[in-house]
Design a protein that fits this description.
- This protein is an alpha+beta fold and about 140 residues long.
- The protein is built from 3 helices and 2 strands, in the order βαβαα.
- The chain has a two-stranded parallel ribbon.
- Helix 1 (about 20-30) packs across helix 3 and helix 2 packs across helix 3.
- The longest helix is centred in the last third of the chain and has 22 residues, at about 115-135.
- The chain is globular.
- The protein starts with 5 loop residues before the first strand and ends with a helix.
Length: about 140
């Protein structure tokens, strides 16, 4: 990565709901940011899970539907597990800590209704907006 480049890894339990949704949303936010925006320092966005439970599985149908309801194409994604890399340096934070509504924990929508997945989408979206405004503010 070039000097000042940033890599962001979204992590949740199984990598089929929250982290997958966050990866897609952040990718779109970076693509839509104007040229020269500090947000463009984000050059790599990925996601994974802490569990092997969903390894190799596609995103939850509720994740797919919530994203498609907001104009995203169907995802070609397979869940993978977090692997700690030797020599890795990372700042680890909860995405929800950037939520302007102060809802730090983003609830797992797994097996929930369409409404539950939409609420998760909205929570992730506003938390990502807070993340970008806080961590990539123009000086």
């Amino acid at each position: 990565m070039s000097e000042g480049a940033v890599s962001v890894l979204m992590v949740c339990h199984g990598n089929i709901c929250r982290s997958t949704m966050a990866q897609q949303l952040l990718t779109q936010m970076v693509l839509n940011a104007p040229g020269g925006s500090p947000v463009k320092k984000i050059v790599k966005i990925d996601s994974c899970g802490t569990s092997r439970e969903e390894l190799g599985n596609s995103p939850d149908p509720g994740t797919q539907k919530a994203l498609q309801n907001h104009g995203f194409p169907p995802l070609n994604h397979r869940a993978r597990q977090f692997e700690y890399g030797t020599g890795s340096k990372a700042k680890v934070e909860m995405l929800g800590s950037y939520d302007p509504k102060k809802q730090k924990v983003i609830s797992d929508p797994w097996a929930g209704s369409d409404r539950v997945f939409e609420e998760c989408y909205q929570h992730i979206y506003r938390s990502l907006e807070g993340f970008l405004k806080t961590e990539f503010a123009e000086h």
